[in-house]
Design a protein that fits this description.
The complex is a heterodimer.
Chain A (H helix, E strand, L loop, with lengths): L2 H31 L17 H7 L2 H32 L6 H13 L2 H12 L4 H8 L14 H26 L3 H9 L4 H29 L3 H6 L11 H10 L4 H31 L1
Chain B lengths: L2 H23 L1 H22 L20 H9 L2 H32 L5 H10 L9 H10 L6 H5 L6 H11 L5 H8 L4 H9 L4 H17 L2 H6 L8 H11 L4 H36 L1
Helix pairs in contact in B: 2-14, 3-14, 4-8, 4-11, 4-13, 11-14, 13-14
Classes of the chains: A mainly alpha, B mainly alpha.
């Protein structure tokens, strides 16, 4: 064997072993487990075919968790992508303070979901800032996190708070990659602010907008830490997202087979989203 | 000076003033929004310094009381010292592992020729699309079968290598000029020595970038420690905080004191290294 090949094997072996055991193998293992009724420790592991999937399909709890997760994900995606674009175009004109603004808006992104969940639980609590503000202007505050219709919007507020900085920074980088000359030329041709935005910014930003839409959607769909720390899935399952549903089934009820079936369904949903993005962005390039 | 000149100078002055005003104006909505975005932090710090029983109508965001003992008390209610020690070990393990193995593998993918290189690299990249929580059950079962539940190794091992890090280092090394290794090869260095003595010393920017990604990932991760530790002595900061929050749910002053301490390292590291982090954020986004 050539020395170069030998060196290459030494260099990549540790990476391949770890990723093989902890990422590639689990994908297949998940699918295999989803066809069994294993509890994770007993020696008996029965092959049950697709009955875990059938159980999920007929479970209203599962559908509800998928529903609230989509509610959360769509809410986060629309608000944070649009707000991120607007914010980025404002920051883009802010000159010397640009990197300052960028850093400030990014701070929530590096704050852990657990910390965010705890702080916002306090903000929304009956003794928290929001309730006190309501009271001080003579309104009786709702009990946000105990109200099944308000708990999810509250969670979405925190999700947007966390996501905004990320989407803003990516949008800003994309805005800055548009050559200034395009705008100058359009200006000479008499194009106004709006038509410059409509005919230069939007078409050139399309791939990035699409990327942000799908990324935000996928990341939001995988919400776990925040729901765990802020609401724990309450009230009445209004915030019991798929992640929590999977976690409970696997690590409280020890239904590893059923939980693996949930994981496989989540993989399918996420891959579908990514494929749609790839298809659309290819379509955009050809058009 | 003619009348024309004066009016022109006038117009220029007005334009300059309106320009400055517009430049300042644009910051005002940004500052307001920044205040809103940072508001939870003001609330957190203010609450952490309040006496326990204080009600606040009207509410306030700037501390007026300074009950520093809340911090001491929160540390005595739960063994946060232990949590920080555990987290430190886990973070060090993950960051060192990711830096070392990413540099090594990135070097191979960027500078060495070997059979199957492209296909292996593609497989590595495609694993980035697999989110952690859909593989967490098998990961747990594998760690359990190794007997590593409730150990530092169990907390570290699945994240010792990062496909993103390998990609980052590959992109970094691929830009180096070829003469760099040609000269070393003529001098009789092996490929491994070239990595060690030529590439590694030049890798500081890539180390800084991946270092902060890995640090933030490890510091903030929650699901894996939640699953793989049952012994409170092995809890990390995030896990300890969540459990503390579950048990002392409405003792906000202590809870906020504990939370304040837990967010400081992440925010501090980010602010110090933000240049490297934000520069590579787009790369991470395109991959994710």
């Amino acid at each position: 064997m050539k020395d170069e090949t030998k060196t290459a094997i030494i260099c990549i072996a540790p990476a391949l072993v770890v990723i093989g055991i902890f990422t590639l193998l689990p994908i297949f293992y998940s699918f295999y487990l989803s066809l069994t009724d294993w509890d994770g420790f007993s020696p008996i592991k029965n092959f049950v075919g697709f009955s875990n999937y059938l159980e999920l399909i007929s479970s209203s709890d599962f559908w509800k968790s998928v529903g609230v997760t989509f509610y959360y994900a769509v809410g986060i995606t629309i608000i944070s992508v649009v707000a991120g674009l607007v914010l980025a175009s404002v920051i883009n004109r802010s000159g010397r303070l640009m990197s300052f603004h960028r850093v400030i808006f990014f701070i929530p992104v590096v704050t852990s979901f657990v910390a965010a969940g705890v702080v916002f639980r306090s903000l929304f609590s009956p003794a928290g800032f929001l309730s006190d503000t309501f009271r001080s202007i003579g309104l009786s505050p709702p009990n946000w996190l105990a109200d099944p219709t308000l708990a999810m919007p509250a969670l979405i507020i925190v999700g947007v708070w966390n996501r905004l900085g990320f989407n803003t920074v990516i949008s800003l980088a994309a805005l800055q990659s548009i050559p200034r000359g395009y705008y100058d030329k359009a200006k000479i041709d008499g194009a106004g602010n709006w038509s410059r935005f409509r005919f230069i910014t939007v078409p050139l930003m399309k791939p990035i907008i699409l990327l942000l839409l799908v990324m935000s959607m996928v990341d939001a769909f995988l919400i776990f830490d925040l729901a765990f720390a802020m609401t724990g899935g309450d009230p009445l399952g209004a915030t019991r997202v798929v992640g929590l549903y999977l976690y409970r089934n696997a690590f409280h009820y020890y239904k590893m087979g059923l939980a693996s079936a949930i994981a496989v369904i989540v993989i399918a949903i996420i891959l579908t989203m990514s494929l749609i993005q790839m298809k659309l962005s290819k379509f955009g390039r050809e058009a | 000076m003619s009348e024309h000149d004066i009016s022109q100078a006038h117009a220029k002055l007005i334009r300059r003033i309106t320009g400055t005003v517009r430049r300042i104006w644009i910051h005002i909505p940004l500052f307001i929004l920044e205040f809103v975005v940072l508001m939870p932090f003001f609330w957190m710090i203010t609450t952490s310094l309040k006496p326990l029983e204080l009600m606040n109508v009207p509410p306030y965001l700037i501390p007026t009381h300074f009950y520093w003992q809340n911090y001491v008390i929160s540390w005595s209610i739960a063994p946060f010292g232990r949590y920080y020690f555990n987290t430190l070990i886990v973070v060090l393990g993950i960051v060192t592992g990711q830096l070392f193995f990413s540099s090594l593998a990135g070097y191979a993918f960027a500078r060495l020729r070997f059979p199957g290189k492209n296909i292996i690299f593609l497989i590595l990249l495609s694993t980035l699309m697999i989110p952690m929580y859909v593989t967490v059950i098998p990961q747990y079962l594998i760690i359990k079968s190794f007997g590593l539940v409730n150990t530092y190794l169990g907390l570290i091992l699945p994240f010792l290598v990062s496909a993103f890090g390998i990609f980052l280092f590959r992109q970094f090394y691929i830009t180096f000029p070829k003469e760099l290794e040609d000269k070393a090869l003529i001098d009789g260095c092996s490929r491994m020595q070239i990595w060690r003595h030529v590439f590694l010393p030049l890798s500081k920017p890539a180390f800084a970038a991946l270092g902060i990604f890995a640090f933030l990932f490890a510091w903030n991760s929650f699901l894996w420690p939640l699953i793989v530790t049952t012994d409170p002595d092995m809890w990390t900061v995030q896990l300890g905080l969540a459990m503390f929050s579950g048990r002392y749910g409405t003792e906000w002053t202590y809870l906020m004191a504990a939370t304040t301490i837990s967010v400081i390292p992440a925010i501090a590291v980010f602010i110090v290294l933000q240049k490297y982090y934000l520069k590579h954020l787009v790369l991470s986004a395109r991959l994710g």
